[in-house]
Amino acid sequence: MGAYVRPRELRAALEVLAGSDGQVIAGGTDIFPARAHAAAWGAPRDSDLLDVTAIEAMRGISREGFGWRIGAATSWAALRDTALPPGFDALREAARQVGGRQVQARATLGGNLCNASPAADGVPPLLVLDAEVELASLNGSRRLALGDFLLGNRRTARAKDELLVAIHVHEAMAQSPSVFLKLGSRAHLVISIVMVAANAAGRVAVGSCSEVARLLDGRGLSPIDDVRATADYRRLAAAELVARARERLAA
Questions:
Q1: For the segment 93-145, what is each residue's pLDDT rounded down to a tens digit?
Q2: Domain 178-250 maps to which CATH number in 2.60.40.10, 3.40.50.300, 3.30.390.50, 3.40.50.720?
Q3: φ/ψ of residue 141, rounded to 5
Q4: Rounded Cα gap, residues 233 and 24, in angstroms
Q5: 7 vs 24: CA distance, rounded Å
Q6: Which of 66, 116, 127, 179 is the most exposed place for a label (fewest CB within 10 A)?
Q7: Would you kindly state where each structural domain of the chain is located, as residue ranges?
Q8: 104 and 77 Cβ atoms separated by less than 8 Å
Q9: Residue 115 and residue 154: Cα distance in Å, rounded?
Q10: 231 phi and psi angles, rounded to 5 deg
Q11: DSSP secondary structure of 195-218
Q12: 8: number of CA atoms within 13 Å, CB side?
């Protein structure tokens, strides 16, 4: 079994990351099931684990300059329960639908983004917020638009020596009321077939229909076929959810 490290300072974590091929872990709600599955089939993972949950700079929600900062290790439960401007309503609705309450208490927003699943619940609400991600390494930090950070299914622009430390939202976007709708095979504890986030500024994002959730910017949607639904079903469902989202915003 590999080493387990839980530093309290960001620089210490970056030093560990720079000298190791280990795996970054926060809530562990994706990594631990994957490891258990691999072990059950005779292929255990023994890479080092870098736990970032003790790093204060990576937790919490705060005002910063002309906007808001969400630490990447902030849990879904914290997002769910924190009073925030109406632009975050879609993100908070998504937080209430991520697994059960136990998962919400453990899983983190940054982990959801770095996992880069096509069905990552945090992505559409953050796209309509025009969010940026902050990446840090020993060489400094940089910011990327969320749409540039997510490259495809399980692929991001994060370099091996970088940590996703925070998500940033401009104050103007935080004030535009937003909604989130999710369609799955059942009401709760489900991976979505289609999900939609929209805000009163006219921004609409659709997830679970392509490798990466994306904003609807005049181009048609080209949904995927998979085990959860056909492309044709997704196209119809997405159109219905977009219409419902707009009705809710109008109301």
A1: 999 999 899 999 999 999 999 999 999 999 999 999 999 999 999 999 999 99
A2: 3.30.390.50
A3: -130, 160
A4: 36
A5: 12
A6: 66
A7: 178-250
A8: yes
A9: 6
A10: -60, -40
A11: EEEEETTS-EEEESSSSS-EE-SS
A12: 0
